[in-house]
Amino acid sequence: MKKVGIIMGSDSDLPIIEKAVNVLKEFDVPYEVHIYSAHRTPVEARDFAVNARENGFGAIIAAAGMAAHLAGAIAANTTLPVIGIPCKSSVLDGMDALLATVQMPTGIPVATVAINGGANAALLAIQILAVADPELAKKLDGKRVNDSKAVLTKDANLSL
Ligand code: RP5
């Protein structure tokens, strides 16, 4: 199976990345995590992206806050699908990162999830890998069924 690459701009983004890692573990999807910054370690971030396909990755998750250029910088250097997580890490509550991550120029797409949306980033990466992996697709179907059941159980237990 292809791996999911997870890059975060700083170790202060770790709590958000942990949400993604937990989902990937739940689905037994292999992953690799790195701290590379578009600004502080631009060479390492670029090298990871340039070599990602050859190194067995099928999708890349990039999480950053503030002037969040990481996902865009990664996307500029690979044609693998890149999923951006805008992180809430400044006085602007993540709106800065959201706009910086989502507003990509035509030709270099970044699939941007919600602010701090670590779990959805992982699910989207899994859905991308599942296009060519029927077993993984079946696991995704199973999760949807379980998630629905959990809501309906809460509905049945409502006592207001
Ligand atoms: C971004 O700046 C990082 O992704 C992080 O969200 C934010 C703050 O980084 P630190 O100053 O906490 O290292 O590059």
Gist of the model:
This protein is of the alpha/beta class and 160 residues long. The protein is built from 6 helices and 5 strands; from the N terminus they run E-H-E-H-E-H-E-H-E-H-H.
List the helices and strands and how they pair.
Layout (H helix, E strand, L loop, with lengths): L2 E6 L5 H13 L4 E5 L6 H10 L5 E9 L4 H6 L6 E6 L7 H8 L8 E2 L5 H13 L3 H23 L4
Parallel strand pairs: 1-2, 1-3, 3-4, 4-5
The protein binds 5-O-phosphono-beta-D-ribofuranose.
Bound molecules: 5-O-phosphono-beta-D-ribofuranose
- CATH fold field value: Rossmann fold
CATH class call: Alpha Beta
The stretches of 5 or more residues where confidence is low (pLDDT under 50) are none
Mean pLDDT: 98
Helix segment count? Answer: 6
**Terminal CA distance:** 47 Å
Series of secondary-structure elements, N-terminal to C-terminal = EHEHEHEHEHH
Strand order of the largest sheet: 2-1-3-4-5
Q: What structural class results from the helix and strand content?
A: alpha/beta
Helix content: 40-55%
Shape: globular
Account of the 3D structure:
The chain is α/β, with parallel strands linked by helices. The chain has one domain: Rossmann fold. 46% of the residues lie in helices and 18% in strands. The protein has 6 helices and 5 strands, in the order βαβαβαβαβαα. Strands 2-1-3-4-5 form a 5-stranded parallel beta sheet. The relative contact order is 0.17. The mean pLDDT is 98. Bound molecules: 5-O-phosphono-beta-D-ribofuranose (RP5). 5-O-phosphono-beta-D-ribofuranose binds next to strand 3.
